[in-house]
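ok so dumb question maybe but i'm new to this and my supervisor (M.) told me to 'just get the structure for SSCRP protein' and walked off. so i did the thing. is this what she meant?? sequence i used:
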Amino acid sequence: MHFASSTAQLIAGLALAALPVAHGAISIGNQIREGGTHFNVAWVEGLSPCTTDVSIAPESASVCNRNFRLDGTDYYLVGCSGGKPYAQNPKRLRRAKDNSLYGTCSAVSKKEIDCKGNTHNVIKRYVCG
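this is what came out, is it supposed to look like this??
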């Protein structure tokens, strides 16, 4: 009986893990490539940006009003107020299909994530959702 219960819990947990973002937080940051172009990137909070980040725009361009796709859903950031590539301060994250609000964005303490052995590192700057 205990085995069946544990198996059911495991299957339910795996099924939940396979679902799209649902409404987890989305992180925004900078992908730093040695000797290459740096990019503004997004990833699902809690996953490694080293392997799951997606490009929003080159770092020298605005992150706002540019669609990017995570887990099959298109999003875009709005309300940028900073003029520097590193400090664009997006205020909100919206879903592209219906312009609905996904969540507000908050700055976080700059955190460099070491992507050991990868072609880049990532600096986390904002969390939205």
